[in-house]
Amino acid sequence: MTMTYDAAIIGAGAGGLSAAARLVAAGKKVLVLEAKDRVGGRASSEQIDGFTVNIGAIAIERGNVFEETFTALGVPLDVREPDPPTVFRIDGKLINVSTGGGWGMLLGTFTKQAAKIGAKFADARKGDLPEDALTTAEWLAKYTKNETVHAIFRNLCAAIFAVNSDELPARAFLTYFALKGAFKRFGFCPRGTVGLWNDLAAAIVARGGEIWTDASVTALRTENGVVTGLDVHRQGETQRIQARTVISNIGPHATIALAGESVLGAEYVAQARQTLRPSANIVLNFATQTRIVDAPGLVTFGRTRRLCNLGELTATCPELAPPGWYLYVAYAVPRPAIGDFDEKAEIEASLQDLRDEFPGFDQVAKILSIRVMRGEWPAQRSVSGFDLPQDTPLANLWNVGDAVKDYGDGGVQACALTGLLASQKAVAFLDGTTEAAHG
Ligand SMILES: Cc1cc2nc3c(=O)[nH]c(=O)nc-3n(C[C@H](O)[C@H](O)[C@H](O)COP(=O)(O)OP(=O)(O)OC[C@H]3O[C@@H](n4cnc5c(N)ncnc54)[C@H](O)[C@@H]3O)c2cc1C
Question: Same fold for the domain at 3-76+192-276+382-438 and the one at 103-178?
């Protein structure tokens, strides 16, 4: 059986579903193909022993393009915002930067150079940014040697970008914190992050879109420099789908594998190999019956081995845990986060940090899961500052997701923007307004 769609979307992650939402809003006939039995990709959730545990993203930024994607289909964004959203925990003490002197006050506790660092953020806001090659750690070392300040910056790099501060361009760090969202306002979904994607998926279907789960795309079909369709393996059979445009949410390397290197060309293949830098992180989900930290939002740590931040989700969303339980997620970033590392040793270092931060941790914590996000299922398909363009050598094929982000962007917000931009390119192609469509 052959079917024709305006757009076929490979993968129902943040980028793929955002693109699908925009395309159905534009009146296009859309098919989303997802290999797993659930939507959301690396921003989804699973059930473990009566707890709703997130796989990946938990903090969903309010406002901007992510929320607009939901608004475009009339779907309310079901998140609860913690107040305060973020605190720091330095030497066992909680510091709330949303009151009082903010960042300046925090850094001023540890270094006389706080004002100078603050001035550099102000310069960044005016467009004065360091050159690409300088890492965040090198940039910071120009102003201070203070170990706690370096640890705070390392843990911010780890929490937002899933890398160490010597793996992230200072330019990307400053672009994010001075010019972009910087997670100032965010919330948690009381049904787990998958709840948001289930809401958006239902609205896509209500507008005539189709979403097939347990449907793995096995090949991209091309002819004369354009994609004509794809092969999908589903319910034990391979089916051919015809599509006028294709949006891929599986990362450029996997997209190349589906189309074939010769089809996308040596230059694009080499660009993907040279540019993309996937990074890893470690997610520790655990629960306690007595609260171990009194902060409703995300807690960023100071000097640790690997642990960067932690959130007690039940402070805002008690329904994520059975009665009487507190549910936490802690994030750690290995050294190095880009490239190979000893998984067992990195998990142990992360657990040791939790034991140091919370004496008696082993006695009170019920570990629900420890996941190392790497390889095919990474923390970031490419670190901020090392993204590919969304366009491919094929006129009607674009990538979305966290390997093709806008410079210095991060999180599902960044993926939603890739979805919006790809949908606009697809609509232009479909409506015949691009050169390629006329050609
Ligand atoms: C531990 C962790 C914590 C994070 N925390 C946050 C956070 O708090 N806030 C935030 O904003 N961001 C966070 N992020 C980042 C965010 O989760 C990711 O950047 C985002 O979810 C990636 O989405 P994506 O669009 O790249 O798609 P992906 O999530 O990569 O989805 C791709 C989809 O394609 C499917 N697929 C693959 N191959 C095929 C195929 N051949 N056929 C069909 N389907 C296929 C996969 O099953 C998957 O569902 C976190 C990430 C991690 C790992």
Answer: no
What is the greatest pairwise CA distance in the chain? Answer: 70
* Side chain identity at residue 8, one-letter code: A
Q: What is the pLDDT along the chain (439 residues), one digit of tens a residue?
A: 567 999 999 999 999 999 999 999 999 999 999 999 999 999 999 999 999 999 999 999 998 999 999 999 999 999 999 999 999 999 999 999 888 677 888 899 999 999 999 999 999 999 999 998 999 999 999 999 999 999 999 999 999 999 999 999 999 999 999 888 677 899 999 999 999 999 999 999 999 999 999 999 999 999 999 999 999 999 999 999 999 999 999 999 999 999 999 999 999 999 999 999 999 999 999 999 999 999 999 999 999 999 999 999 999 999 999 999 999 999 999 999 999 999 999 999 999 999 999 999 999 999 999 999 999 999 999 999 999 999 999 999 999 999 999 999 999 999 999 999 999 999 999 999 655 544 4
Number of H helices, E strands in the chain: 15, 18
Q: Rounded to 5 degrees, what are φ and ψ at 235? A: 50, 45
Ligand 1 residue neighbourhood (C-beta within 6 Å)? 10-15, 33-36, 41-43, 56-59, 216-217, 249-250, 254, 281, 283, 373, 379, 381, 400-402, 411-413, 415
Q: Is domain 103-178 classified as CATH 1.10.405?
A: yes
Q: Please name the CATH architecture into which domain 3-76+192-276+382-438 falls.
A: 3-Layer(bba) Sandwich (3.50)
CB 212 within 8 A of CB 34: yes
CA angle 227-40-15, nearest 5°? 45
Q: Which of 176, 299, 412, 413 to mutate to test the pocket of ligand 1 (most atoms within 8 A of CB)?
A: 412
| DSSP tag of 176 | I
Its pTM surpasses 0.90: yes
Domain ranges of the chain: 3-76+192-276+382-438, 103-178
CA 157, CA 168: separation in Å to the nearest integer?
7
Residues 50-89 as b or e (16 or more Cβ within 10 Å = b): ebbbbbbbbbbbbeebbbbbbebbebebbbebbeebbbbb
